[in-house]
Amino acid sequence: MSSTKLKLALLQMDIQIGEPEANFIRAERMLTEAVSAGDKPDLIMLPEMWNTGYALDRIHELADKEGVRTREKLAAFAQEHGVLLVGGSIAEKRDNGVYNTIHAFGRNGEELGAYDKIHLFRLMDEEKYLQPGTQTGTLALDGTPAGMMICYDIRFPELFRKLALSGVKAVFVPAEWPNPRLHHWRTLLQARAIENQMYVIACNRCGQSGETVFFGHSMVIDPWGEVIAESDDREGILTAEIDFAIVDEVRARIPIFEDRRPTLYE
Ligand SMILES: NC(=O)CCC(=O)C(=O)O
């Protein structure tokens, strides 16, 4: 029987706004560091828009065309090291628009899934420059169903519930979530894990772009809502081990999916 456990490494990276070259070098350095550690991870994850940061006024020029560069690099890395890779999100130019897109890869470098951010965040002007996604994002991790969302998406519990009802046991959330909303970040992530009885794995950036400070605090939260790993505000790699068997245990202990009465509120 295949293992229900996965060792994770979340790359909490400081992103240089508008500097894809520097960001690729930094991401490659951190990826290499993650697989060089004694306890090699099964899955590595990056933060949101790590190739460009929120350089939105130049995003059409800076975004990765069709995601080719990112996909080639990440697929090759996943294959070389036999790891799963949730490639954070990137600014990706496609069909004359720019999307905020995740690409995820399997241990042989195959693309497991992609997701374009559905909810664009007005406080950071995303809706003026980016195209919204039109589909939810799922992938299978060594056979276990998981979901993908990006940052502001965590404010929409309906999206989590839809994925939970489809059988998803973990959701990955790359983010660029800044001050002064650390309490929203921590509370929403924990609530989404508790109410859907699933793992929530959230990788935020750190550092500062202009006046905006990104507090890091990448988190891995279990289906009981316990924070099993959390970063501080500095660049680094957060590690944790998850066990999908715990999702089934928690869902059996409090059977909310059996007790729902959707005809009354849907
Ligand atoms: N990049 C984002 O979507 C930021 C979302 C955010 O900060 C929030 O408060 O929501």
UniProtKB/TrEMBL annotation:
<dbReference type="InterPro" id="IPR001110">
    <property type="entry name" value="UPF0012_CS"/>
</dbReference>
<dbReference type="InterPro" id="IPR036526">
    <property type="entry name" value="C-N_Hydrolase_sf"/>
</dbReference>
<dbReference type="GO" id="GO:0016787">
    <property type="term" value="F:hydrolase activity"/>
</dbReference>
<comment type="similarity">
    <text>Belongs to the carbon-nitrogen hydrolase superfamily. NIT1/NIT2 family.</text>
</comment>
<protein>
    <submittedName>
        <fullName>Putative amidohydrolase</fullName>
    </submittedName>
</protein>
<keyword id="KW-0378">Hydrolase</keyword>
<feature type="domain" description="CN hydrolase">
    <location>
        <begin position="6"/>
        <end position="244"/>
    </location>
</feature>
<dbReference type="InterPro" id="IPR003010">
    <property type="entry name" value="C-N_Hydrolase"/>
</dbReference>
<dbReference type="Pfam" id="PF00795">
    <property type="entry name" value="CN_hydrolase"/>
</dbReference>
